[in-house]
Amino acid sequence: MAGEKQAAEKAAAPALVTIAVAQRRTIQLPGKDEQGEPVTLSYGPGQTVEVEEGEAKRLRALGFAEPEAEDADEEPATVINAGG
User: Fold this and answer.
1) Residue 77 in contact with residue 66, Cβ under 8 Å?
2) Domain boundaries, the chain
3) What is the pTM of this model?
């Protein structure tokens, strides 16, 4: 039974996508941390961040992240299972 519970939790874990930061920015993420403070990201150009796919789309739309790789020469974003 414990194995079934772990498998269900792993399947429910959101997949993470690696995004490349476009320019130095600080943005506020939805929600609050354990102390009730806003959650922010502050990264510089070329650094990578792992976020959920929906959040990656939002960050790209805000200009925080580089656009998705569309050329065959570019590598696509790596999807990582958060339960891993």
Assistant:
1) no
2) 12-81
3) 0.46
**Strands ordered across the beta sheet of 15-20:** 48-52, 15-20, 79-81
Q: Phi first, then psi: what are they for 26, rounded to 5°? A: -125, 130
Q: Is residue 64 classed as helix, strand or coil in its secondary structure?
A: coil
* Tokens standing for residue 21: 């930061």
Q: Name residue 80's amino acid.
A: I
Distance CA(19)–CA(66), nearest Å, equals: 7
**Listed ranges 21-25, 58-62, 77-81; the one with the highest mean pLDDT:** 58-62
Query: What does DSSP say about strands 15-20 and 48-52: parallel, antiparallel, or unpaired?
Result: antiparallel
pLDDT in tens, 41-70: 777 777 887 888 888 888 888 887 888 865
